[in-house]
Amino acid sequence: MFQDKTLTCRDCGRQFVFTAGEQEFYQSRGLMNEPGRCPDCRRARKATGGGGGGGGGYAYSSSSEGYSGGSSYGGGGGGGGGGYDRPRREMFPATCSSCGKQTKVPFQPRGDKPVYCSDCFENVRGGRSR
Question: Which of the listed residues 32, 48, 64 is the one where a domain comes to its end?
Fold first, then answer.
């Protein structure tokens, strides 16, 4: 069971609460590190494209591995983060819902939504910007 934790922001030094709900969300997404920045500093960093990788989400990979993950809190997604070595994200095997090809994704497929390989994801996304 999770409990709220008080953390200190590494950018502004203010304390913020890492809620039990946020901790559960982090665990469900395979995120192992607690946030280092308060929500205001995370928003500011994301708005300015900080963190080397520029913002997060899942970045397209031309390999058959599927997607390389970055969190929506900055870093990841395109190379580099906050100047430290982040542990590799756990990848899970999946079958593409479109073509049936075996792939790996950075989340545990739950079966309630389609999962795509890199090629099919790009086709489904249709070049839309994020």
Answer: 48
Name the 3-class secondary structure at 14: coil
Confidence band (pLDDT; 50, 70, 90) for 90?
A: confident
Per-residue confidence at 56, pLDDT binned at 50, 70, 90? very low
Q: Which residues contact 19 (CB under 8 A, 6 or more apart)?
A: 4
Q: Are 17 and 78 in the same domain?
A: no
Host domain of residue 128: 54-130
Of 96, 81, 104, 98, whose CA–CA distance to 30 is shortest? 104
* Local structure of 50: helix, strand or coil: coil
**How big is the chain, counted in residues?**
130
